């Protein structure tokens, strides 16, 4: 493993990294929860957040069995040379898909709200160039970038909480629970929690870069998920109390519409521009992280010495997938694929196999040691 | 380092390409700022959309400086179409600048269109990404919307801003277009919007409230006048203060005016023997603004008397208002259905589908408790005996 200065990720950088991924990736899709669990969407999101917190903690603990090897090496060591390589493949599919879906979404969103006369592929191409540039700096570079963008992003999101107070009707959150019931509330977590957990899945790859801070990774990721869940819950509560559950369910992006409805004394308006620019920062960072993770692990998988070469193979794949995917209808398809196939396999099944195998191996090693003694 | 240089070269190359092909130039002098939109029904049943377009030159000029190119501050342009976007496109043919709805202050709907129903026109206002979520909604009584928008305001450069400021002065909360939509989609509520009418010499004034019924196509059900809409706004938390004048003891010269603030309301619903009962509590505190009666508000006993007279009068008027809306309009604009939904969420499904029928037969008891806190700068009435 090459370990130069730019391949080190600190704890706080991991914290902001998870934060930014979720803000830029999950925020646009909060609305899908409102469609299902209406005014109780915030309960669904809180429940989902708790589940994701537990999930991230466990995933980090699993990774700490072997914090110095890459995911491919780890799988190979635990599951054997051949099976270990096969088991990593679903991750590549998941990450490439999520990357191209996000690229497509941001291209489309920027196209519709800001640059409606620029062809979409150019917008996407520019994002791709930024993403390649950032990724070539290594994970340390992305981490530094997040160090700056993260607090800024948080400050803006935090500020928006207070700017819409005169438009809020708390009554729109009522009645709590009775209209939906537990079953619907739990169903509401389906479009949210798996996507939210998708960010934490990166821990499997990122922990080895944390060197001496690896032990704290689970604590940092827990904090990140907690803060994220809180912002999601607050935004859902505020969004529903401004628009009402049925209108909120019709909005394309609840948070963006929420920020567009801010109007204080005819003076503080159009704060969506701040959010928009920070969101573009966030998207760039998120896409770079995914690109890094895919490139690095692919290099390990193919046993290529310099992982940077792989960027030039992976990027066109992501770009072309994003380009050819059909507009608007792709998201439904992606979400059913992600929620019902990719996440259960990559997030739950494979880590479980790895965990069981690690325990068995540990016990086995222990036994051998005892026998030798 | 060489890699970095190459990357920068590529970025620069792409950036230079961008300038040529995007054409996303949105300089202010290429845009026609839409300050307000009026939706109307033409005589032959078509949708007509009027756009109040700001003329920046007319704004900077003013009356004394005379520096501007034109003395008009806006231009009203109308076009018909099968929907709002179509009308917008047709209107664009008459304008040399691109229409920009991002500063739209108001959306005004003419009575003929409101009576025909506006349920099919809502989509564009939230779908269009450049549309404005902060537009306020108004309905015009007995006239077309464009008639209002074409009027000159006394103070404001645009009628659309004047309409908005009028609401500020009357301490009303804005009815944003999105609020109207949210009400439309809420169970047990029928939406309402502020109404504007024209005086005999065709000057716009705040008339009251336009009541809608969403049951089939969001049609205008009728209007409530000034005093009725004060009560309606009070009962739905849309107004924080109002002026009130009344005659006491039936004599013409014995009258008193008060300024009420701190308006509060509480709706309490009960289900007794499958019958829904609503208790409405209205409270507030007042300042005496003018007193031409023999009562002295500084005297405890006389103050109580005064308060009792006011309370029973308001109570009677609110009762009448509720009866009127129940029997004439059949639209629950008072949000009683919503209150029942929130307070009895388990039983709501029984009433949900037929709420309009239940609303018409609802028993509402009104309790008013106003307090005259300050008598003003004088105590005993100043009067020539």
Automatic annotation (TrEMBL), chain A:
Keyword Transmembrane set for record: yes
Key words of the record: Germination, Membrane, Transmembrane, Transmembrane helix, Transport
Lineage: superkingdom: Bacteria
Bilayer disposition of the protein: Multi-pass membrane protein
Family membership: Belongs to the amino acid-polyamine-organocation (APC) superfamily. Spore germination protein (SGP) (TC 2.A.3.9) family.
One GO term (biological process): spore germination
Localization, UniProt: Membrane
GO cellular component assignments: membrane
Main localisation: membrane
Protein name, UniProt field: Spore germination protein KB
Keyword Manganese in record: no
Transmembrane region(s): 7-30, 42-62, 82-103, 123-142, 149-170, 190-210, 222-244, 274-297, 309-331, 337-360
Automatic annotation (TrEMBL), chain B:
Domain Spore germination protein N-terminal, first and last residues per copy: 24-197
Entry-linked InterPro entries: GerAC_N (IPR057336), Spore_GerAC-like (IPR008844), Spore_GerAC-like_C (IPR046953), Spore_GerAC_C_sf (IPR038501)
Gene Ontology CC: membrane
Major localisation: membrane
Keyword check for Signal: yes
Keywords in alphabetical order: Germination, Lipoprotein, Membrane, Palmitate, Signal
Domain Spore germination GerAC-like C-terminal span(s) in chain numbering: 208-376
One Pfam match: Spore_GerAC_N
Subcellular localization: Membrane
GO BP of this protein: spore germination
Signal peptide residues on this chain, from the entry's feature table: 1-22
Annotated membrane topology: Lipid-anchor
Record has Metal-binding as a keyword: no
Family to which the UniProt record says this protein belongs: Belongs to the GerABKC lipoprotein family.
Entry protein name: Spore germination protein KC
């Amino acid at each position: 493993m090459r370990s130069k200065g730019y391949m080190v990720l600190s704890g706080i950088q991991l914290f902001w990294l998870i934060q930014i991924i979720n803000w830029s990736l999950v925020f646009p899709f909060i609305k899908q929860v409102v469609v299902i669990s209406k005014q109780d969407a915030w309960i669904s999101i809180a429940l989902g957040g708790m589940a994701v917190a537990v999930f991230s903690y466990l995933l980090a603990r699993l990774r700490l069995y072997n914090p110095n090897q890459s995911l491919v090496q780890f799988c190979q060591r635990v599951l054997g040379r051949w099976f270990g390589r096969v088991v990593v493949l679903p991750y590549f599919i998941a990450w490439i898909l999520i990357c191209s879906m996000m690229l497509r979404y941001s291209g489309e969103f920027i196209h519709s709200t800001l640059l409606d006369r620029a062809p979409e592929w150019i917008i996407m191409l520019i994002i791709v160039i930024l993403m390649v540039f950032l990724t070539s700096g290594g994970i340390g570079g992305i981490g530094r970038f997040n160090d700056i963008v993260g607090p800024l992003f948080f400050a803006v999101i935090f500020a928006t909480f207070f700017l819409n107070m005169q438009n809020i009707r708390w009554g729109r959150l009522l009645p709590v629970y009775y209209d939906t019931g537990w079953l619907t509330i739990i169903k509401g977590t389906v479009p949210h929690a798996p996507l939210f957990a998708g960010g934490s899945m990166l821990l499997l790859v990122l922990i080895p870069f944390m060197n001496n801070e690896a032990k704290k990774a689970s604590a940092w990721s827990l904090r990140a998920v907690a803060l994220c869940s809180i912002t999601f819950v607050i935004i859902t509560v505020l969004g529903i109390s401004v628009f009402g559950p049925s209108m909120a369910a019709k909005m394309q992006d609840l948070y963006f519409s929420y920020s567009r409805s801010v109007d204080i004394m005819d003076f503080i308006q159009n704060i969506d521009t701040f959010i928009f620019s920070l969101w573009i920062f966030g998207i760039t960072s998120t896409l770079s992280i995914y690109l890094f993770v895919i490139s690095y692990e692919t290099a390990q998988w193919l046993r290529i010495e310099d992982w940077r070469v792989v960027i030039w193979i992976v990027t066109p794949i992501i770009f072309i997938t994003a380009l050819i995917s059909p507009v608007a209808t792709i998201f439904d398809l992606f979400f059913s694929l992600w929620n019902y196939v990719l996440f259960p396999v990559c997030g739950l099944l494979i880590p479980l196999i790895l965990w069981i195998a690690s325990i068995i191996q540990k016990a086995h090693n222990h036994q051998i040691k005892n026998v030798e003694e | 380092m060489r890699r970095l240089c190459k990357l920068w070269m590529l970025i620069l190359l792409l950036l230079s390409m961008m300038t040529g092909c995007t054409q996303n130039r949105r300089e202010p002098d290429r845009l026609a700022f839409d300050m307000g939109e009026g939706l109307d029904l033409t005589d032959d049943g078509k949708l007509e959309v009027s756009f109040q377009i700001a003329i920046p030159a007319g704004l900077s000029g003013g009356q004394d400086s005379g520096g501007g190119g034109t003395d008009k501050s806006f231009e009203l342009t109308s076009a018909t179409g099968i929907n709002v976007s179509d009308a917008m496109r047709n209107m664009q043919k008459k304008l040399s600048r691109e229409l920009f709805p991002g500063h739209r202050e108001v959306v005004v709907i003419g009575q003929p269109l409101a009576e025909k129903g506006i349920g099919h026109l809502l989509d564009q206002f939230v779908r269009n990404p450049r549309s404005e979520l902060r537009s306020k909604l108004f309905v015009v009584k007995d006239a077309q919307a464009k008639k209002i928008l074409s009027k000159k305001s006394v103070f404001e450069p645009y009628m659309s801003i004047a309409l908005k400021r009028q609401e500020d002065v009357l301490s009303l909360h804005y009815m944003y277009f999105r609020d109207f939509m949210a009400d439309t989609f809420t169970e047990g509520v029928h939406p309402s919007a502020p109404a504007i009418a024209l005086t005999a010499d065709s000057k716009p004034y705040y008339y009251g409230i336009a009541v809608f019924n969403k049951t089939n196509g969001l049609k205008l059900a009728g209007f409530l006048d000034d005093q009725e809409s004060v009560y309606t706004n009070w009962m739905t938390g849309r107004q924080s203060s109002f002026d009130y004048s009344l005659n006491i003891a039936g004599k013409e010269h014995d009258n008193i005016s008060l300024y009420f603030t701190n308006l509060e309301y509480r709706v309490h619903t009960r289900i007794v023997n499958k019958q829904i009962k609503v208790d409405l509590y209205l409270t507030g505190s007042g300042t005496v603004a003018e007193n031409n009666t023999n009562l002295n508000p500084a005297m405890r006993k006389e103050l109580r008397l005064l308060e009792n007279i006011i309370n029973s009068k308001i109570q009677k008027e609110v009762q009448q208002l509720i009866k009127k809306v129940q029997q004439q309009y059949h639209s629950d604009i008072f949000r009683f259905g919503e209150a029942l939904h929130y307070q009895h969420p388990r039983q709501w499904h029984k009433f949900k589908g037929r709420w309009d029928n239940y609303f018409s037969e609802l028993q509402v008891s009104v309790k008013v408790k106003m307090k005259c806190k300050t008598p003003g700068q004088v105590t005993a009435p100043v009067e020539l005996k």
